[in-house]
Each structure stands twice: as C-alpha cells, then as structure tokens.
Design brief:
Order of helices and strands: EEEEHHHHEHHEEEEHEEE
Number of domains: 1
Helix content: 25-40%
Largest sheet: 6 strands, antiparallel, barrel
Number of helices: 7
Structural class: alpha+beta
Shape: globular
C-alpha cells in the first residue's frame, strides 16, 4: 500500500491490498482482511454491465449536455458502481453510533466484519470504491480527509472520499453520498496547475498542513470544498477557490507525489 500521512487527521492511500490496515478515525483502523464474496460478485457484475453499456448513447448525451470533462468509460464505471452498490446492498450503511461502538471495541476492525454487520459509513464506502477502481486500473487514491459545504464553515466535517486522476483532470468521487436516483456523486476539481502546486507546498511545509479545494458537481454544478483538514478550525489561507486559468502557467500537474 502507498500511504501518505498528511497530518494527524488526513491521509491518502493507493494500491491497497489484502492485509493492509487503513486508519479511518483518530483511534480506529480498518484491516482489509478480504473482499467479501458478495462484494466480489458485485464487482464482477459491475464489470459485466460496463462491458455492455460503455458505449451507451444516453451516457454520451448526458456527458455532452453537462460538458463533463471525463471519459465515457470512466463515467460508466462510476455510474454502475453507485447503482449496483445501492441496489444490491441497500442496508449496508448505518446512520447511528453503532459503527463507532464497534470500532471502540475493535480498534483494528476487519472489512468483512463491517460488511457483514452493515456498519458502513463514508470511510468503508470509499475503501471499497478504491478497491474496485484499482481492479480496473483507474489512477485513484482513497482520501481520509474533511469536507466543508462552503468557505464560511468554521470547522470541517471528517469525511472520506476518492480522488480520481484522468488525462490531467482530477475528480472527487463521493460514494457514500449518491445524488438522486442513485447516480454517482462526482465533482471536478477546478484548480489551476499553479494552485495545485501551492496546495502541495502547504501540505508539505505549511505551519498547519491543511488545505481545501473547490469542486463542482459534474451534473448539478453544486460547488463545495473537499480537502485535507487537521481537525481544527478552517482558516482563510487553507481554502483554494477556482481561478481563471492563465496561459502562462505551466501545464504540468504537480498535484501528486
């Protein structure tokens, strides 16, 4: 597993494999003991559906209508993932404190246990999304970070999601929060290359290694901020809003190691 611990709260992980342990809270850890058989079958179903729908003209029309800068194949994978998970495992998630209680008793819990007990929240949904994307060779990474609805929030909400990289573009896939009709929650990261460099510099050498970047939902156009919080108050210099792209800025994407 490639793990990057950004601060005490936020981290990124890719190439997650069986036996790896991912931190999903201040004292909670999730062991990827195995991919449950039912989930493995769901992944197989997704790949089979995508093989039939990759050239679906409805998806092509949707992407064109909303001017989505994403390949139709990737969009279809995310669309199918959201649908299959929601329809196959409608009771997989929990909205109460039972998950926290389970982790309190099992600080290094197993993925299969959380799956069997239907105790999924954002971290577990993002983990299985990352496992699926890895299985189809998509350049992506799990992020245990924070979310703020707008730049006026004083504190961020701890939240897990997936960042996908495709053809120089970055997208946030939030599998725990589908849009209406179980369509995927996908946002494009609208940062200039210059801003991406500044974000990475702040995460590497900032007094507080925390940064939030503006995103736009590719279907609803709703703007929010995802990022790497540190559990403390959000300061103005941590927020990076969309800027007009300037042609004199280098096109190199330095947003990742």
């Amino acid at each position: 597993m490639k793990l990057r611990q950004i601060n005490e709260v936020s981290l990124t992980a890719s190439d997650i494999g069986i036996g790896d342990v991912v931190k999903v809270g201040e004292t909670a850890n999730l062991t990827i003991d195995k991919i449950p058989e039912e989930l493995q079958k769901a992944f197989e179903k997704m790949r089979e559906i995508v093989s039939r729908q990759a050239n679906n003209p409805d998806n092509a029309k949707l992407l064109k209508q909303h001017q989505v800068p994403m390949s139709q194949l990737l969009f279809t994978h995310l669309f199918v993932f959201a649908k299959v998970i929601a329809e196959t495992f409608p009771n997989l998630g929990c909205n109460d404190t039972s998950r926290q209680s389970f982790y309190a008793k099992n600080p290094t819990a197993k993925l299969s246990e959380l799956f069997d007990k239907h105790l999924f929240q954002c971290a577990e949904y993002a983990i299985i999304a990352q496992l699926y994307l890895q299985s189809i060779n998509v350049d992506s990474e799990y992020v245990g970070g924070e979310y703020i609805g707008n730049k006026n929030w004083e504190f961020g909400d701890q939240h897990s999601f997936v960042i996908i990289h495709e053809k120089g573009m970055d997208f946030v896939f939030d599998p725990a929060n589908n849009n209406s009709g179980n369509t995927p929650n996908i946002s494009v990261v609208e940062m200039t290359p210059e801003q991406k460099v500044k974000i990475q510099a702040k995460l590497l050498a900032g007094k507080r290694k925390a940064a939030f970047f503006e995103t736009r939902d590719i279907i609803t156009n709703r703007k929010t901020f995802y990022g790497y919080g540190d559990g403390c108050n959000v300061l103005e210099d941590m927020i990076f809003e969309k800027q007009q792209y300037r042609s004199n800025i280098s096109g190199n994407d330095l947003s990742r190691d």
